[in-house]
Fold this sequence. Notes:
With 267 residues, the protein is mostly helical. It has 9 helices and no strands. It has helices at 2-35, 49-61, 64-86, 95-133, 136-142, 147-184, 190-200, 203-229, 234-266. The longest helix is centred in the middle third of the chain and has 39 residues, at 95-133.
Amino acid sequence: MWQFFSGILKILVFPVTSFLEYLGTLAIMFGEACYYLPYALPFRKSSKWKYILGQIAKIGFESLPIVFLMAFLLGVILALQAAKQLERFGATIYVADLVAISLTREIGPILISIIIAGRTGSAIASEIGTMLVTEEITALRAMGIKPAKILVMPKTVALFFGLPGLVLLGDFIGIAAGFFIGCFMLDISFWDYYNQTIKILSMAHIWAGIKKCFVFAIVISMVGAYRGFSVTGGAEGVGKATTSAVVDSIILIIAINSLFTLISYYQ
Length: 267
């Protein structure tokens, strides 16, 4: 009987302890990245700011096409779905409210962050995992170079600044798509739609979405780095780590977004 209950207890407790250990490892890795933040400054000796700028350009510019396409389609979908419901009450003008607020506060930040998690988070895990398999990480440590200094910190800083910028641009494109649908398909005049958007959209709504992105950026970089450093089993292990990095990032992004929403609800 005792073995039965101990087995049940193990099944219930082990996932919790494993998850807490996982979060603790991410926190330690984030602390290491923060420790090397001074090397992100341009005037510091051995500064990594040029590499960081390159990472920002890579994360930002190379992601623009897919972010723009997704944001535009999101704006179209939101406008059409809202119009279908609101036109029954003669309130089609409030399509502008729904598109602007839902894009800036929730849908834009979370979906664009998921795209970046799939694109950049997987790349981080793959790059670090490949370096680990080919023993480049071991060589760096043998030369006295900390991997967190040249691999984790620059990517974290680049994501920290690059992701909010992408979300801002995505919000603009999505709202513009709502303008297009409202003016050309829903017979709303340009100035009515514009005035309604300006009336409802405030910096508080925009900031509510952007502040999440700073946390999402840290999550994506930390999870990608952690999975990369945890690679075992050669090339197959790199593939598994890449998949795990994307899945973990998406789950954590949704969980953190839910926490932000819960907090804002009670404020």
